[in-house]
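Internal ticket - ligand job 251, zinc ion:
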Amino acid sequence: MQVTIVGWSGSFPGPQSPASCYLIDTGDFRLVLDLGNGALGALQQYTELGDVDAICLSHLHADHCMDMIGYSVYQNYHPEGPRPRISVYGPEGTNQRLARALGSESRGMADAFEFTTLTVGTIEIGPLRMTTGHVNHPVETFGFRIEHGGQVLAYSADTGPSAELVRLASGADLLLCEASFLDGPGLPADLHLTARQAAEHAARAGVGELVLTHLVPWNDQATSLEQASAAFAGPLRLASSGLRLLGGRPA
Ligand SMILES: [Zn+2]
Ligand SMILES: [Zn+2]
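stdout (structure tokens):
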């Protein structure tokens, strides 16, 4: 399973990256994990849009789902005719929420995508075994543990401190963890993690490697890395566009 970082900017797109988007490719199955603002463009550097088998949305904040609107245009108005519907997994109300954002069109979100409501538990998506749990964010948000071929990827989505995230990431080869905040006084509760807290979660979960993501453009990234390195002794780096992680077929 190869993971490609398509977008890593937190909360809104930055000058160097779209908002959240990750591509998971097993060689014969492609899952897009989150599709935030600007990510649809960058995604095409790594896959044909018509080759995506499934899309999974952690939550319905715009920086994780808004480029589904553009994707529906690709699906519904392709010059070769409407494309086969792509499976989309998301929180309760995903279809309705995206349909409102799309507005009135002759072909809608349900023509482009086949929606399945995520619940807590374990499901098979193609060859991927996906375990979900609720993490700590103001709207319903799922964190993920994705297993394939003996490899384990964990993804925090957006979360404040979360025991569920530690459970999902337990022993994972790789944790993609949000690190929206820098250390400081007066940070809001139950919203996001500092880079140091991301590292503490990684250490508690005993993950093999930590990649800090959802980096907000107004923060200094070197400071994020420094603050995280104080709390996690294993391999640690910042997300970057096009970074490929874990193994699998070279793209
Ligand atoms: Zn976010
Ligand atoms: Zn969010």
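Auto-summary: The first strand starts at residue 2 and ends at 7. The longest helix spans residues 195-205.
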